[in-house]
Amino acid sequence: MTAGTSISDKFYIFAGVLFITALFLIYDLYTSEMYQCPRVRYSSPIAGRTRYKPKINKLFGLKVLDRDIDFDINGSDVIVFLHIQKTGGTTFGKHLVKHLEHRCDCSNKKSKRCDCNRPGTRVGDNNIWLFSRYSTGWSCGLHADWTELKNCVPKVLDDKENNSKKRRYFYVTVLRDPVQRYISEWRHMQRGATWKKARHMCDGRLPSKEELPSCFTGENWLHVPLDEFMNCKYNLANNRQTRMLADLSLVGCYNLSKMPDEERKQVMLRSAKRNLRRLAFFGLTEYQLESQFLFEETFKLNFQIPFEQMNNTKAELASATAVTPLQYERIKQLNSLDIDLYTFARTLFIQRKALMEAKKNNNGMLPF
């Protein structure tokens, strides 16, 4: 045996060992009884101040991690976008109607909406594959939550298509770092924006004024100071992402007297995590390209442009640096459920992306 042959043989043996070792590591990662999440630190927009850390170690089985969805845009499948305020949902919503390889018809310049009909739909007919702000409008109410959408979407589509039929619904959403999202919502309200037209429908009825009082009098909350914004007990900005993903029927909707406050919070959090696991897709505002990859691999629908990771604007940075350390801690306390939920979501997101990449590199097959 020549020296060259000996080196070549050793190289192939070494490569083979590495490959087999990698397979065992991946197998162990996704079949172990407890996957230990890496201790990832979440930085606040306020440099050098307090950070919060993940506390959750969760097992995600293949059924949760492997999103192998056979989405049929020509059949009766519908993507439903649950748009949570101040998570970058407007940008994602525009991607859905304007930048997918199967584009919606956005030719009507007088309307913000696009016609998202299935390929081959006759002119004048409705055969909708996307339920979202920019396709069907706020048909279930302004920024409808999971509870509202589940009970509303089928009926709305039946009415729009003038046809009652069985459909498969695939829910998607986008989540954002809870502290940054909260500050963004405060700034949004400071500028005079409101969501007064939101219905908050639950169990077939709207909440009473006693159940959900307004935090302000007059038309808006223009120039509201952060402390006043935080002091309103009924401010729906608090733990908004958890509430909008939870089944509110489990906690008596907006009737706070149905159960003790701590029990209500834990029921909502468990429900939100359960629903998040079951969503066809969720993205994270802080991970634009990774979110795009997961969506495309999940639905086998490709975007024609890459998602852009937007850095904080000067206005956002200015508002963030205006927050004192005490106010920052208060924001964390008011959004403790969202911080828990986001930590959970980020762990699931990372593991799901790892599995998707492994499948893509293995010709679409699970690597074990």
Task: Describe this structure as you would to a colleague.
32% of the residues are buried. Strand 1 (77-82), helix 3 (89-98) and strand 2 form a beta-alpha-beta unit. Helix 8 packs parallel to helix 12 (336-360). The protein has twelve helices and four strands, in the order ααβαβαβααααβαααα. With 368 residues, the chain is mainly alpha-helical.
Outline:
The protein is mainly alpha-helical. It is built from twelve helices and four strands. The longest helix is centred in the first third of the chain and has 29 residues.
List the helices and strands and how they pair.
Blueprint: H1 3-31, H2 62-65, E1 77-82, H3 89-98, E2 130-131, H4 146-161, E3 168-175, H5 178-190, H6 226-231, H7 240-245, H8 261-278, E4 281-284, H9 288-299, H10 314-321, H11 325-334, H12 336-360
Which features does this protein show?
single chain, 368 residues, mainly alpha, 12 helices, globular
Measured as a percent range, the helix fraction is 40-55%
**Biggest sheet: strands, sense, closure?**
4 strands, parallel
Low-confidence stretches: 1-5, 23-57
Radius of gyration (CA) equals 23 Å
**H/E order of the elements?**
HHEHEHEHHHHEHHHH
How far apart the termini lie comes to 35 Å
**Number of H- or I-type helical stretches:** 12
SS-based structural class?
mainly alpha
Question: How much β-strand is present in the residues?
Answer: 5-15%
* Count of strand segments: 4
Overall body shape: globular
Task: Record the strand order, biggest sheet.
Answer: 2-1-3-4
Average pLDDT rating: 86
